[in-house]
């Protein structure tokens, strides 16, 4: 069954979703899945004709090197807000990494700034991957303020 509130697949037989806490029932789950399909929710709708990747997979791939980002851009659904969000975060992280690479040219102070910045970016990458795995669209610290992909 798919939770009507968060979109996660629920395999337990509880009364509430273990991810978001929303009430579950067989009738509500089926009706909710139907409502999500009618509203165009990206969790339960079938893949569009131009996308061959699941939105979560595309969101995760965005953060894994430039090659993963390119695969997500080419094979992912670029109209999906979940995929757009994670593509934007990954693109900002990659651009910030390039800028920090240029800062490394400055001896000592540049090295320290670049080292601290790269540690921050690695933490942001991990947070982005965890957010994509969980199906969330959490804003990353500092990174989430920049919207390059709209």
How would you describe what is shown here?
The chain is mainly alpha-helical and 150 residues long. Helices cover 54% and strands 0% of the residues. The protein contains five helices and no strands. The chain has helices at residues 26-39, 55-62, 65-75, 81-103, 109-133. Residues 28-49 have low confidence and may be disordered.
Please supply descriptive tags for the structure shown above.
single chain, 150 residues, mainly alpha, 5 helices, elongated
How would you briefly describe this protein structure?
With 150 residues, the chain is an all-alpha fold.
Provide the fold topology.
Elements: H1 26-39, H2 55-62, H3 65-75, H4 81-103, H5 109-133
Number of H/I helices: 5
Helix and strand content put the structural class at mainly alpha
Order of SSEs, N→C?
A: HHHHH
Q: What does the oligomeric state look like here? A: single chain
Helix content: 40-55%
**What's the total number of strands?**
0
> Which whole number gives the mean pLDDT?
80
**Basic shape:** elongated
**Termini, distance in Å?**
32 Å
Share of β-strand residues: under 5%
Characterize the biggest β-sheet. Answer: none
Radius of gyration: 18 Å
Catalogue the unreliable spans: 28-49
